[in-house]
Amino acid sequence: MGQKGFGYLNGSTSTNPLFGPNLTDALDFTDNRLGGLVQKLKDAGIYDSTLLIVTAKHGQSPMDPTLSDKIAPATLQNGTSVKFAFVTADDGAYIWLEDPTPENVAQAKSDLLAYKPARIAEIFAGLEVYQHGFGDPRLDPRVPDLVVRSEIGVIYASPTASKNMEHGGINPDDLSVAMFVHNPEFKAATMKDLVYTRQIAVTALLALGAPVTELDGAQADGTVALPGLNF
């Protein structure tokens, strides 16, 4: 939490976290709701046999609101003469071109990377989009032709917009989330293994004794259960 851009406020450390009011309110709200759920499980007599997995579907970037820098989404189109058919952007951008020929895709990528006002850190285009797990834009029109990773802290929004963080990009703050696994039989421990939210479905099915083979995605990816659990 002490690294600039990856903490809650500048100066935050793991031993002295400086949580902002929004995060503090969110944690208090979540704690209250989890407490109510646990009580319901106890009232029903199933708490001791229940596996609880608490996580989130995405993070927020920038986690430190003091780093937020808003740039109008139109800035992206201003950076290239290649016409966009559609763009969706917040702290990253997904762009579809009117005429996505290989030449236009390459030109748009080159132009945007050179356009300093757009504050772009990296762009995946064409085959690179597929290689990073977004699908193949050459075969599926639903997949964007370009995927933009903005500089940390940049949000593509009106400078007068009230929001100071978003969750549509692929920077670490967007992709990293907390995960807690609880059962009364577990001993408290911190696992440092790299895990993925896609492992939750496999873990849940194994805990229920259901066939993991029914999950086509898990079979294709070779997804395994979360570590440290015995079924």
Largest sheet, spatial ordering of strands: 3-4-6-5
Secondary-structure element string: HEEHEEHEHEEHEHH
Q: Helical region count?
A: 7
Shape: globular
Task: Provide an overview of this structure.
The chain is an alpha+beta fold. It has 2 domains: 21-63 and 173-221, no CATH class; 69-163, 2-Layer Sandwich (Gyrase A, domain 2), CATH 3.30.1360. It is 29% helix and 15% strand. The protein has 7 helices and 8 strands, in the order αββαββαβαββαβαα. The chain has helices at 21-43, 74-78, 102-114, 127-131, 172-175, 199-208, 216-221; strands spanning 52-54, 69-71, 84-89, 92-97, 120-125, 146-150, 154-156, 180-182. The strands form 3 sheets. A 4-stranded antiparallel β-sheet has the order 3-4-6-5. A two-stranded antiparallel sheet has the order 1-8. A two-stranded parallel sheet has the order 2-7. β3 and β4 form a beta hairpin. Residues 1-7 have low confidence and may be disordered.
Task: Give a topology summary.
Layout: H1 21-43, E1 52-54, E2 69-71, H2 74-78, E3 84-89, E4 92-97, H3 102-114, E5 120-125, H4 127-131, E6 146-150, E7 154-156, H5 172-175, E8 180-182, H6 199-208, H7 216-221
Parallel strand pairs: 2-7
Antiparallel strand pairs: 1-8, 3-4, 4-6, 5-6
Brief account:
The protein is α+β, with helices and mostly antiparallel strands and 231 residues long. It has helices at 21-43, 74-78, 102-114, 127-131, 172-175, 199-208, 216-221; strands spanning 52-54, 69-71, 84-89, 92-97, 120-125, 146-150, 154-156, 180-182.
Feature tags:
single chain; 231 residues; alpha+beta; Gyrase A, domain 2; 2 domains; 4-stranded antiparallel beta sheet; 7 helices; 15% strand
